[in-house]
């Protein structure tokens, strides 16, 4: 049995999978915000409840978090759950649970889930993108998350928009302190802000991304123009991935991946920017959707990844 934990800012989800990847049990608990010791206890309790419910014991626990472990000292960094930052989260969890723990960035877990038995199951090199409230990504090679030398492989949300046009430069300011990050262009809030700027609305005064979908379907020219700009920028960003990583499959996740025809439109927008006479990389929507994060955490304990 494998157990995966998806740690989020408001809830913690736990999932038990059998060796074939079938779901055995799933539980959720509220996140003890700003309480590090409480967070460790909550995850340990969730693991115990999953094992009690299945009558089985997992050899190790996989956990996906917003952020990553620093290669320097193994403590948590770069996450919005600020009470975890600087803490040896995996070691403290291993002590509380009494077994080894593997922690990965939640985007890496998403990509791993889709690479093992999802949209990228037929590829050796799979890049998973998350385009929702923010922009993230994860790289999986031979069903193993590839973090890179500094543990930041796949972090494409805070690289600048490639081939920026005159009216896109210097670009909106990102929360990270820099300008023109992909996150301010090809996220849900980025789409909303771009539409508002184009029609002269104040920040936060325009329609939501969901409303913009309905407006585009209804034939609203401003909404159609906003989606044309979104897909062109999305295509440029994917072409950057294709040129740097050259994956077999790019899997789209997050809220924007659910847009009508998103994989086909994003791939068509990508093709003109790829510096190659052949582009066989496929762009697909995630199979497991919102469950991919917790499923990927469980797949961190994979016979093909002995570590």
How would you describe the overall organization of this protein?
Helix content is 33%, strand content 20%. The protein is of the alpha/beta class and 307 residues long. Strands 3-2-1-4-7 form a five-stranded mixed beta sheet. Strands 10-9-8-11-12 form a five-stranded mixed beta sheet, with helices on both faces. Strand 2 (11-17) and strand 3 (23-30) form a beta hairpin. The radius of gyration is 20 Å and the shape is globular.
SSE topology:
Layout: E1 2-7, E2 11-17, E3 23-30, H1 36-54, E4 61-65, E5 68-69, E6 76-77, H2 89-97, E7 101-105, H3 106-117, E8 125-131, E9 135-141, E10 144-145, H4 188-199, H5 209-217, H6 221-244, E11 249-253, H7 262-270, E12 282-285, H8 292-298
Parallel strand pairs: 1-4, 4-7, 8-11, 11-12
Antiparallel strand pairs: 1-2, 2-3, 5-6, 8-9, 9-10
Helix pairs in contact: 1-2, 3-8, 4-6, 5-6, 6-7
Concise synopsis of the structure shown:
With 307 residues, the protein is an alpha/beta fold.
Low-pLDDT runs: none
Structural category: alpha/beta
Give the % helix.
25-40%
The protein's oligomeric status is: single chain
Q: Approximately what portion of the residues adopt beta-strand conformation?
A: 15-25%
Average pLDDT, all residues:
94
Tally the helices.
Answer: 8
Strands, count:
12
| Main sheet overview | 5 strands, mixed
Series of H and E elements: EEEHEEEHEHEEEHHHEHEH
For the CA atoms, what is the radius of gyration? 20 Å
Distance between the termini: 18 Å
- Largest beta sheet: what is the strand line-up? 3-2-1-4-7
Overall form: globular
């Amino acid at each position: 049995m494998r157990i995966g934990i998806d740690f989020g800012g408001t809830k913690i989800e736990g999932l038990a999978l059998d060796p074939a990847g079938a779901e055995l049990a799933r539980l959720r608990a509220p996140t003890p915000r700003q309480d590090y010791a409480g967070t460790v206890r909550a995850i340990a309790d969730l693991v115990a409840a999953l094992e009690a419910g299945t009558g089985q014991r997992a050899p190790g626990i996989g956990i996906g978090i917003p952020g990553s472990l620093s290669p320097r000292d193994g403590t948590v960094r770069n996450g919005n759950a600020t009470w975890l930052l600087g803490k040896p989260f995996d070691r403290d969890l291993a002590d509380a649970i009494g077994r080894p723990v593997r922690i990965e960035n939640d985007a890496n877990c998403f990509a791993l889930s889709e690479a093992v038995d999802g949209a990228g199951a037929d590829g050796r090199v799979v890049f998973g993108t998350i385009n929702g409230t923010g922009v993230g990504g994860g790289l999986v090679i031979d069903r193993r998350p590839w973090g890179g030398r500094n543990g930041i492989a796949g972090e494409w949300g805070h690289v600048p928009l490639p081939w920026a046009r005159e009216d896109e430069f210097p670009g909106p300011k990102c929360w990270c302190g820099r300008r023109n990050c992909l996150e301010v262009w090809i996220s849900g809030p980025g789409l909303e802000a771009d539409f508002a700027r184009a029609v002269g609305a104040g920040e936060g005064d325009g329609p939501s991304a969901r409303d913009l979908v309905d407006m585009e379907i209804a034939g609203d020219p401003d909404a159609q123009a906003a989606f044309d700009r979104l897909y062109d920028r999305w295509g440029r960003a994917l072409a950057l991935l294709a040129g740097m990583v050259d994956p077999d499959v790019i899997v789209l996740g997050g809220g924007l991946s659910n847009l009508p025809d998103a994989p086909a439109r994003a791939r068509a927008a990508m093709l003109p920017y790829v510096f190659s006479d052949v582009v066989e990389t496929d762009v697909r929507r995630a199979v497991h959707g919102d469950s991919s994060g917790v499923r990927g955490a469980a797949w961190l304990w994979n016979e093909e990844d002995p570590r």
